[in-house]
Design a protein that fits this description.
Shape: globular
Radius of gyration: 19 Å
Number of strands: 10
Number of domains: 1
Helix content: 25-40%
CATH class: Alpha Beta
Structural class: alpha/beta
Strand content: 5-15%
Number of helices: 7
Strand order of the largest sheet: 1-2-4-3-5-8-6-7
CATH topology: Aminopeptidase
């Protein structure tokens, strides 16, 4: 199964290209997928709302206007509870499977230990997903069907952007619960993660932070979300590829209990995200301006 080429959808992802890409930015939403196959639902012990706890619900809608600003986007249609593209390709928990896994599988990462590997054992909050153990071939099939096409699309967009502009920045868009498992309230409206400066030039992170704060939003950096596999894997500032992660507080735009959008909140959060992404674009272009002027 291959990702779509232009402005369309298949059953794995949605890829939107502007008529002309105007800035060196790509946006992604790996956790907003809500296309649940019936056989997957039948195999789960969770009800239709509980299984959605891991979703970064409606983030795909929040980034939907970015192509109008000349920015390509890719969003997963498959749910995070099925396979998580913000992990290494094979972060798998051996206890989930009815037969041994290959030795090269990463079975000891902190994410695997919490049940949140490439094929998750639990949803956010710790509820078990599957009624029984999976065959190792099931994990392989999910990774080939969903994970690989998603990253193929990201790689293609990033490389096209870098070739066109000389640099590229991936903005990986997520949402976070308004309260932790212990009931404590989230201390920020937005958390920006740049792997503590390793995945993105600090001027880019600073530009996004300032843009959001100018809108009256509370912003934290790297606490408690410094960025996942996608940010860490693709962010190579020394090769002119930057990556940073946005986590928007879900209480800004949705009812977390009923999983429903809040109309005015969706619009204001969408505009805030677009403002921050455009600030990122300006910062990336400013870094490359001296080199371009010298040519």
């Amino acid at each position: 199964m291959q990702p779509v080429n232009d402005n369309g959808t298949d059953d794995v992802l949605t890829l939107r290209r502007p008529a002309r890409q105007r800035v060196p930015v790509v946006a992604s939403s790996p956790h907003s997928g809500r296309r649940y196959a019936q056989d997957f639902l039948n195999s789960s012990r969770l009800d239709h709302l509980a299984i959605r706890r891991s979703e970064d619900a409606f983030v795909d809608d929040l980034i939907a206007g970015l192509p109008d600003h000349g920015i390509p986007t890719v969003a997963a249609l498959f749910p995070r509870a099925f396979v998580d593209p913000n992990r290494e390709p094979y972060e798998l928990d051996p206890a989930m499977f009815d037969a041994p896994l290959p030795r090269w599988v990463n079975s000891r990462s902190p994410r695997v230990k919490t049940g949140l590997g490439t094929v998750p054992r639990v949803v956010a909050g710790g509820a078990e997903i599957s009624r029984g153990k999976l065959a190792p071939q099931e994990a392989e099939a999910r990774i080939k069907q969903c994970y690989v096409p998603y990253h193929d699309a990201l790689v293609a967009l990033i490389e096209e952007t870098r070739r066109t502009f000389g640099s590229a920045c991936l903005v990986d868009c997520h949402s976070m619960p308004s309260a932790g498992n212990d009931g404590s309230r989230q201390k920020a409206d937005v958390v920006i993660g740049d792997r503590f400066g390793a995945s993105c030039d600090r001027s880019v992170t600073a530009a996004a932070t300032a843009a959001l704060r100018d809108l009256g939003l509370t912003v934290r950096r790297n606490d408690p979300y410094p960025g996942g596999f996608i940010t860490e894997h693709y962010g190579r500032p020394d090769h002119d590829v930057h990556a940073l992660q946005f986590e928007f507080n879900r209480a800004l735009y949705m009812n977390e209990r009923t999983m429903r959008r809040i109309g005015k909140g969706m619009e204001s959060t969408r505009l805030a995200l677009e403002t921050a992404v455009l600030a990122v674009a300006d910062a990336v272009m400013a870094m490359s301006a001296p080199a371009n002027a010298a040519e």
